[in-house]
Amino acid sequence: MMALNAAIAAVTDRIIEASREKRAAYLALIDRERESGVDRPMLGCANLAHAYAGTDEDRDAMRPANRMNIGIVTAYNDMLSAHAPYYRYPEQMKVWAREAGVTAQVAGGVPAMCDGVTQGFPGMELSLFSRDTIALSTAVALSHGTFEGAALLGICDKIVPGLLMGALRFGHLPMVLIPGGPMRSGIPNKQKAAVREAYAEGKVGREELLDAEIAAYHGKGTCTFYGTANSNQMMVEAMGLHVPDAAFANPGTKRRQELTRYAVHRLAEVGWDGDDYRPIGRVVDEKAIVNAAIVLLATGGSTNHLIHLPAIARSAGIIIDWDDFNRLSDVVPLLTRVYPNGSADVNGFEDAGGPSFVIRELLRGGLLHDDVLTIAKDGMAAYGRQSTIENDQLVWKDHAATSGDDTIVRTIDAPFSHEGGFRILQGNIGRACIKVSAVDPDRWVIEAPCRVFSDQAAVQAAFKAGELDRDVVVVVRHQGPKANGMPELHKLTPPLGVLQNRGFRVALVTDGRMSGASGKVPAAIHLSPEALGGGPIGKLRDGDVIRLDANANTLQALVPADEWDAREHAPVPPAADGTGREIFAMMRQGASEAEAGGSAMLAAAGL
């Protein structure tokens, strides 16, 4: 194993220094909570009777205060395919807790919405702030002081970040995240994308499109493309918050069941009064956050995590910004090609070696911190080994030296690219991020007149009317956290892809999100400051020439400086209501910029 890469060490040192004051305050908080916070021994008898009244079998076992009680925080619902497998988890986990000599209770539930259902519709404007809601719900669940550890059941886009943001405020408790796994593969992702583009062009109808979508999203588990949900699992592995190699075992399998069972047993071992106490606030430190960023880059993961990871970090008193991602991207190689970065889905990724192969290779190349505290006994090295079932038992084995399929996963010696998939663009329009790992290098530089919109429905209408059949930079503004909750603009992927297929030079510039669904079209997203906050994107006018240059890391409106400085900002569209959007006004008004996490909760708390 090589020594840690010097550039990664330098970024880590910068984060440690930038975080020094806030991290010290955070560690003081969790130490204080551990020593003098609310816990079972200090609760009154009536308080405890209320806490125990809902259980029969475990009531007597809960009475001694020296026995761990695990709080289960669950994101179960059966509308969301990824969370539907959690239906029987609490029931099973209580049995496995008894095996380990401890008890477990469902502490509470958190909402879990699906961007795949709401994309392109008003509900998507609640999506980002569902993360704050989940964090607050997690805090409520853990506030009773009756738990010595917690198991977090969540897997998708805002759910894992929200669970962690809330859980880290109880950083004195040991915790483990328990995933549910991806659904089995449906139709190939390229086939699904082709049908979507055909529908955008009017070549197939709604029934053909619906057939294709149902063939792709067809069962319990996460979606199989490498978007935000599955990027979550990759990062959580690298942070040491799963048991090793838990990310992509399919629901309903023996391996998935035994990984969950082991997670409960392991949580009991790292508990409150044992000699292997591992509180989540100590596991999630500066090095763990850097490791999460590195594996995100190495796998071409979702750009949503340029918002989520800073928010998670701030909940633990750690400051990471986009410059840190940019510096890491310069030295972290791209080791995977998983859709939308390639043709394989996450099941193909798992079969070729999966997250544990990537972690093994990054460790081998000196590109991950190995001296970190994790849920696993053997530290980060344990996350570079493959979990499997042998003789009906869960075991971990060393990977082969080579990938199971080097069109999907590669070794550190022969990466797909010698740099990660993200870059930060800056210029007179603001500061944005771009995911270039799936973009042909010939399209890393786009210079074209822009067409300005304030919602994605207007873009779709202009596309259908043939108004965008030219070289064009599509600008969609008033899509930031303060404006409308920063919805993902998934619906733009097919029409922009069609325009590019027709031979036009096309790009997207927006203060909104695009997430793991961003693919072959260059997209400068999360533009900050956003239009509503006075960001210069509000000065753009139809016909202004924009130059997006991912080689030079610039994003520039080619407008004379004196004219640009004198321009007024465009009027702000009125806030929309309906679908509950009006009751989230306080979150929009209080939200931070995307680079600081886009969170009203963290901004209000001064985190």
UniProtKB/TrEMBL annotation:
<keyword id="KW-0408">Iron</keyword>
<dbReference type="InterPro" id="IPR004786">
    <property type="entry name" value="6-phosphgluc_deHydtase"/>
</dbReference>
<keyword id="KW-0119">Carbohydrate metabolism</keyword>
<dbReference type="InterPro" id="IPR000581">
    <property type="entry name" value="ILV_EDD_N"/>
</dbReference>
<dbReference type="Pfam" id="PF00920">
    <property type="entry name" value="ILVD_EDD_N"/>
</dbReference>
<dbReference type="InterPro" id="IPR056740">
    <property type="entry name" value="ILV_EDD_C"/>
</dbReference>
<feature type="domain" description="Dihydroxy-acid/6-phosphogluconate dehydratase N-terminal">
    <location>
        <begin position="68"/>
        <end position="381"/>
    </location>
</feature>
<keyword id="KW-0004">4Fe-4S</keyword>
<dbReference type="InterPro" id="IPR037237">
    <property type="entry name" value="IlvD/EDD_N"/>
</dbReference>
<keyword id="KW-0456">Lyase</keyword>
<feature type="binding site">
    <location>
        <position position="223"/>
    </location>
    <ligand>
        <name>[4Fe-4S] cluster</name>
    </ligand>
</feature>
<keyword id="KW-0479">Metal-binding</keyword>
<comment type="function">
    <text>Catalyzes the dehydration of 6-phospho-D-gluconate to 2-dehydro-3-deoxy-6-phospho-D-gluconate.</text>
</comment>
<feature type="domain" description="Dihydroxy-acid/6-phosphogluconate dehydratase C-terminal">
    <location>
        <begin position="408"/>
        <end position="597"/>
    </location>
</feature>
<protein>
    <recommendedName>
        <fullName>Phosphogluconate dehydratase</fullName>
        <ecNumber>4.2.1.12</ecNumber>
    </recommendedName>
</protein>
<keyword id="KW-0311">Gluconate utilization</keyword>
<dbReference type="InterPro" id="IPR042096">
    <property type="entry name" value="Dihydro-acid_dehy_C"/>
</dbReference>
<dbReference type="Pfam" id="PF24877">
    <property type="entry name" value="ILV_EDD_C"/>
</dbReference>
<comment type="similarity">
    <text>Belongs to the IlvD/Edd family.</text>
</comment>
<dbReference type="InterPro" id="IPR020558">
    <property type="entry name" value="DiOHA_6PGluconate_deHydtase_CS"/>
</dbReference>
<keyword id="KW-0411">Iron-sulfur</keyword>
<feature type="binding site">
    <location>
        <position position="156"/>
    </location>
    <ligand>
        <name>[4Fe-4S] cluster</name>
    </ligand>
</feature>
<comment type="pathway">
    <text>Carbohydrate metabolism; Entner-Doudoroff pathway.</text>
</comment>
